[in-house]
Amino acid sequence: MTYVVYLNNASFIYPPTFYINGFYNVPNAKYYYIFLCFVYAVTILGNSFIMGTIYLARALHTAKYIAVINLAMSDLCGSTALIPRYVDMFLFNKQYISYGECLSSMFFMFFFMSMQSFTLLALAFDRVIAICFPLRYHAIVTKTTMMMIVAVMWVISVCIIALLVSLITRLTFCGSITVDSYYCDHGPVYRLSCNDQFPNRVMGYVYAAVMIFIPLLLIAFSYGCIAFALFKISHGGERMKAMKTCTSHLILVAMFYLPILTVYFLASTTYLHPNTRIINSILTQTVPPMLNPIIYTLKTEEVLQSIKVLYKRIKVDSMEQPVKSIVKKKAVQVDLVALSKTQA
Q1: Are 294 and 198 in contact (CB under 8 A)?
Q2: 3-state class of 10 per DSSP?
Q3: Taking the model in full, what pTM does it have?
């Protein structure tokens, strides 16, 4: 059964469901989905930990960590939008997904992926100002500035991806409903239609340019400026110290963008087996959110120091709590004795 929708004297045929095909004849694929469950659990713990640390540590209440907490939130929500639904789908053979659920899933997947890309760009902006204009850093990178940057990123992402997804509704699906992917991916879905796909193809290129390639080029340009500024520093120790502040961000950028660029390059130059594309896409969308908080915890001195301070505070509070309870108990006993004497 299909749905027929009439709009401006034109009819559009929507299927009630899509079938998510997933892997092609991969043996023991269920173990891979169980691995994704482990990845999701680590992602929840790691990103919740980094957000909790930033919230509790006053030393981290700076503009830079507004972007970091936005990245952690995007990682957590992006993994939540992907892993639980699709692990359940493939482990228990529930591979049919309704038309509306498919479009909403597509929106959230692309939205949180674009937010990760934009947030990496915001962190690059923070680093280039810190190293190229150190004396003006606190005047330029303020909490208000970073919150405005994050707000603009959200608005741009919502507008572009809402348009990307809404253009699917102008397509007629009169043939196959099998999506050759592990989720409702934009390309595999619109290619199933049997009417004009040109606007969807153009919008796919616009999304890739605005959300992936332009941020990556700006990040590369910012590190070119950083390299030029470091080249002018004559003292080797200061140069190394400045470079160390960029290592965690560079690792995050490499983990996020390299797999995406690899797929784009291979798909445009040679035949890419669907399983290869699917595995690469899954790793791109699940592994970086898991590793981001670990890298920021281990590679960022500010975060490590804040964790140590919080640990000492919790340890001191736990040691003081029994003493306070004993003192309070004795005080109550003294008050009761005094009260009984007064009544006597």
Answers
A1: no
A2: strand
A3: 0.86
